[in-house]
TrEMBL record:
Protein's name according to its UniProt entry: Peroxidase
Residues engaged in binding Ca(2+) 1: D72, V75, G77, D79, S81, E93
Site (Transition state stabilizer): R67
Pfam families referenced in this protein's UniProt entry, alphabetically: peroxidase
Organism: Musa troglodytarum
Positions bound to Ca(2+) 2: T199, D250, D258
Function: Removal of H(2)O(2), oxidation of toxic reductants, biosynthesis and degradation of lignin, suberization, auxin catabolism, response to environmental stresses such as wounding, pathogen attack and oxidative stress.
Residues engaged in binding substrate: P168
Length: 333
């Protein structure tokens, strides 16, 4: 048994270190890191500067900006639909169940867009801003760097239904979460690696309360949650009230992007059910959790690969969509 596990881990390590074998390594001929080199050469510098200022002011903002990219890409692809406010026929995704009173960082995106419009009018898309801000936030928190493929354009609409249905929820079953990833072209390895983004950021009491009091539906707490950790959480997450109370997703190093998230899962101190099930519900994800817990560099390498892959989910390119001048509304409004 031990030999088979070692062999499995060696294969996973080899996969994590293997080069990307695509004709277009960044996901297609229309997305590539040099997209703005001539049309807006200071684009990345401008984004990085404003993100750095925002994260210096509030460390939590790194996780918030990274999350915006995730929640954008899982709905209609990476097209900045999450940034649109409600107006006319558009019902904003900001009001969906996963996003309401939760997603944040819109003012930082507004500041970036304003600076880019001054430097290079009508050139850099809001979708690319989200992708760049996610990378810069990760790096500022101590995580890996990756080249961001660019050339996305912005959507002409939003989908609150897609936001409600497509974004993985904290209480979803393992199979439901995996299915949501597969529907976006992402696989089991991507699921585990991208879940590692929960090494930074915070979550509300309402997102994990059932684990403390009624995970089974019969009034019992989640047996995969460490009892001492659960008791600590109950002090600020009661049976009723305190819905918006915030808790670090990674209590060991809440503002540092590292692999302690995976070590937490192995000690039954993952905060969300959707996190802990990666170690308790599936042998393949359990082995990946153990691999990343032991090898931070492997986690970083795979996270970078997986987030580039996620950033390539059905982008609008060429003449599709538009380049919004204000990320919150369509140009013709």
């Amino acid at each position: 048994m031990a030999l088979s596990i070692c062999s499995f881990l060696m294969v996973l390590a080899a996969l994590a270190l293997s080069p990307l074998c695509f004709a277009f390594p960044y996901g297609g001929p229309f997305l590539y890191p040099q997209f703005y080199d001539h049309s807006c050469p200071k684009a990345q510098e401008i984004v990085k500067s404003i993100v750095a200022k925002a994260v210096a002011k509030e460390a939590r903002m790194a996780a918030s900006l990274l999350r915006l990219h995730f929640h954008d890409c899982f709905v209609k692809g990476c097209d900045a639909s999450i940034l649109l406010d409600s107006s006319g026929t558009i019902v904003s995704e900001k009001g969906s169940n996963p996003n309401r009173n939760s997603v944040r960082g819109f003012e930082v995106i507004d500041e970036i867009k304003s600076a880019l419009e001054k430097a290079c009018p009508h050139t850099v898309s809001c979708a690319d801003i989200l992708a760049l801000a996610a990378r810069d936030s990760t790096v500022l928190a101590g995580g890996p760097y990756w080249d961001v493929p660019m050339g996305r354009r912005d959507s002409l609409g939003a989908s609150i239904q897609g936001s409600n249905n497509n974004i993985p929820a904290p209480n979803n079953t393992f199979q439901t979460i995996l299915t949501k990833f597969k529907l976006k072209g992402l696989d089991l390895v991507d699921l585990v690696a991208l879940s590692g983004s929960h090494t930074i950021g915070q979550s509300r009491c309402t997102s994990f309360r059932q684990r403390l009091y009624n995970q089974t539906g019969k009034g019992f707490p989640d047996f995969t949650l460490d009892p001492a950790y659960a008791a600590h959480l109950r002090t600020r997450c009661p049976r009723s009230g305190g819905d918006q109370n915030l808790f670090p997703l990674d209590f060991v190093s809440p503002t540092k992007f590292d692999n302690s998230y995976f070590r937490n899962l192995m000690t039954k101190t993952g905060l969300l059910s959707s996190d802990e099930i990666l170690f308790t519900n599936n042998p393949a994800t359990m082995h990946l959790v153990a691999l990343y817990a032991a090898h931070n560099e492997l986690f970083f390498q795979q996270f970078a690969r997986s987030i580039v892959k996620m950033g390539n989910i059905t982008p609008l390119t060429g003449n599709k969509g538009e380049i919004r001048m204000n990320c919150r509304k369509l140009n013709h409004q």
